[in-house]
Structures are given as C-alpha cells and as structure tokens.
C-alpha cells in the first residue's frame, strides 16, 4: 500500500524551506528569466498597440503626392481644407462644425527647462477642429493652448529626452527660435499622438514663416467615403494631392516594424530557452545534493514515479512563485514605461497576453527543468545512492 501512494503534498513544500539559500537563488533566477520575457513581450505589445490605435478607418489623410509616405516632407496649399469641405460630401459634422483638421507637422529640436541639450521632438500645428477628427485625444490636465502656448502628449517627455516634470503645466519649451508655455497635457489611448507637442496652427505658421500645410485630416461618416476624397484628389491635378485612409497609412508603417517584432519574439524564445537550461543546471545541483534522501524514500517503499512527481512539484512551485513576483514587478515597474522610437514614443504594455506567456514560460521552467535531473537521480541503484556522500 505504501508503494502505491504519492508523497504528501506538504513534503515538497517543506523541502523548499529546508534549504533557504538554494531556494532563494533558484527563485531569483526564475524570476529574472520570467521578467525578461515579460519585458520583451511588453515591448512588442506596446509597439503594436501604439501603431494600431493611431489610425481610424473613417479618417482620411490628404497630403502632397510628391512626399511619398513621409508627411513631414509634405507641403500642400493652405486652402486645401476649405476646398475639401466645399467639394466632398460625407464629411462628419459635430454640432454644425465639420470635422476637417488642417495640420502642420514637423520634427524639430525642442528644449525644455532642465535639459542640457535640445532633443528631437514632434510638433503638430492644429486648430480647435483637431479633437473632432482625433477622437482618441483627451485633455487630461490644463487647458487648450492659446497664443504662445502648447499642450504636450503624456509621452512627449520621453520623445525629446526630458524628465516628466520638465513638461508639466506652466513650464516653458523652446523650438524654432520661439518660446512656448505648456498649457495642458493630453492622452490619446496609447496612440503615437501621445509623443507629440501640439501648438496653435496660426502661431506655428507665423513662427516658421510658412503659410502651407503638411496635411488635412478629414473624418468621413463612413469608411466607404474615402473613395470620394480620393476622387477629389485625382480630379484636382493642379493641387497634386494624395488621399489615404489613416488606418491604411499606419498599417503600411507597421510593415517597417515587422522585423523588430520578429526579432522581439526571437528574443523571447532565446530567453525562455536559456532559462530552461539555467533551470536544468540549478535542478541538477539541487537533486545531486539529495541523492541519499531520494534513495531512502525508495528504500521506504515509495515508487520512483511518486518521488519524481514530488521533485517536479517543488520546481513548479518555485517557478510559479517566480512568475508571480515577475508579474508584480512588471505591473508595478515595467507597465507604462515610455520607450522612444522613430515615430515618437510608446508605453510598454504588461497585459493579459504578456502575463499568460510569462506564466507559460514559468511552467516550462518548472517541468522541463526538473524532469531530466530527477530522472537521472532515480536511475541510481538504491544501495549505491544511500552510500553516496
């Protein structure tokens, strides 16, 4: 009867506390491996969310045909917005105001208080019609910018390399030879807009001595209306315009980051693989030191399968504890951390997908890390194992 029974559940739990130093080191190693996986997955998820949240299928971007896909190099007549409003049907209207946003967009060096050198940032000149088109933008603090003022996205500090407090309301920014006062801070549902600085369009045009626009964003009442805007651009060959659905525009940009995402998943696989090997090494050391104990259990009549299951239980418990610690650190420290990239900045995202992958890696560490050393220890003859030191 004794040989048919499994070892008590609390036997494996007590074993973890009998060797606190080894248990602590193993737990620390597993936590670091799982946390690394969580950070890489958070990077990939954050980048994907930033690009996918920026484009809207109803919004059409109209910019210069000669600029290719680079809006920064686009220059279109300042009258384009009014021409579109007068010529195209289906423009969404909010309380009698049509959702057409003329914008001036540029990358420039921005200096803030506390910065030793100016950093490269993104500035968008907008009118009060911009929130009608960019529905995800919400003013979370302060007020809409007036003359000489700007409002900053919640990740703009990361893009220009400043501290978050340097871009608080009331602080000053300077770019293109002009000083600006920060009047507000906005969020945009994790989209790329959150890394931008928004200034009044007229003030920005005056500062830059420009009367043209970079683009006009139009919110149509249905995705099917995109063709109407495209037809307008094709008919007005004198303006040399191009119309692209905003969702398609950012989807095309996602293709450029596909190798980055692929590299990220490769790093996840490499970290997980190295973690399994590290776990194997650790468990080999742990099991070798318990050969006599395991042989004694066999002498008492416990089957090898029961002992093997207990060793896997111990390793899995440690891996689960490591996963919990890693997820807590990820949620408290990693989640929301800003990362700069060419289009702006995005926040690392520790979500349910990342946690599920991290827990899966932890389970692999626990099971695959314990099985080979445990199976090897079980193959030793009982008498020889009891005599071993």
Automatic annotation (TrEMBL):
It comes from the Bacteria. The keyword Cell membrane applies. Residues 266-381 form the ABC3 transporter permease C-terminal domain. Pfam families: FtsX, MacB_PCD. The lineage of its organism: Bacteria, Pseudomonadati, Planctomycetota, Planctomycetia, Pirellulales. One of its GO terms (cellular component) is plasma membrane. Keywords: Cell membrane, Membrane, Transmembrane, Transmembrane helix. Its main location: membrane. InterPro entries: ABC-4/HrtB_transporter (IPR051125), ABC3_permease_C (IPR003838), MacB_PCD (IPR025857). Residues 23-228 form the MacB-like periplasmic core domain. The chain crosses the membrane at residues 25-44, 262-287, 307-334, 346-371. Signal peptide: none annotated. The keyword Signal does not apply. This is FtsX-like permease family protein. It is found in: Cell membrane. It is a multi-pass membrane protein.
């Amino acid at each position: 009867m004794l040989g048919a029974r499994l070892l008590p559940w609390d036997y494996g739990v007590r074993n973890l506390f009998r060797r606190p130093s080894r248990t602590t080191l193993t737990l620390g190693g597993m936590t670091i491996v799982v946390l690394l996986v969580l950070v890489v997955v958070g990077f990939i998820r954050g980048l994907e969310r930033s690009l996918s949240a920026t484009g809207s299928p109803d919004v059409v971007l109209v910019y210069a045909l000669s600029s290719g896909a680079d809006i920064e190099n686009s220059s279109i007549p300042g009258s384009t917005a009014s021409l579109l409003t007068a010529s195209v049907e289906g423009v969404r209207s909010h309380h009698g105001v049509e959702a057409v946003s003329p914008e001036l967009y540029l990358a420039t060096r921005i200096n803030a208080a506390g910065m030793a050198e100016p950093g490269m940032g993104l500035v968008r000149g907008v009118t009060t019609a911009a929130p009608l088109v960019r529905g995800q933008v919400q003013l979370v603090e302060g007020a809409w910018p007036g003359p000489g003022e700007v409002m900053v996205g919640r990740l703009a500090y990361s893009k220009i390399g400043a501290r978050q407090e340097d871009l608080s309301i009331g602080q000053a920014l300077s770019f293109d030879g002009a000083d600006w006062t920060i009047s507000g801070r906005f969020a945009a549902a994790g989209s790329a807009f959150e890394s931008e600085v928004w200034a009044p369009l007229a003030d920005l045009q005056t500062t830059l001595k420009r009367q043209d626009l970079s683009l006009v964003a139009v919110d149509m009442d249905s995705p099917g209306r995109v063709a109407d805007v495209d037809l307008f651009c094709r008919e007005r060959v004198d303006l040399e315009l191009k119309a692209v659905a905003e969702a398609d525009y950012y989807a095309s940009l996602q293709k450029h980051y596909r190798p980055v995402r692929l590299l990220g998943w490769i790093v996840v696989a490499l970290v997980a693989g190295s973690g399994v090997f590290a776990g194997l090494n650790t468990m080999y050391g742990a099991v070798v030191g318990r050969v006599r104990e395991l042989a004694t259990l066999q002498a008492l009549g416990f089957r090898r399968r029961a002992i093997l299951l207990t060793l896997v239980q111990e390793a899995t418990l440690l891996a689960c504890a490591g996963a919990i610690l890693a997820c807590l650190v990820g949620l408290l420290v990693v989640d929301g951390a800003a990362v700069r990239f060419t289009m702006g900045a995005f926040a690392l995202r520790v979500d349910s997908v990342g946690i599920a992958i991290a827990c899966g890696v932890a389970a692999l560490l626990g099971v695959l890390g314990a099985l080979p050393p445990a199976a090897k220890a079980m193959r030793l003859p009982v008498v020889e194992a009891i005599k071993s030191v």
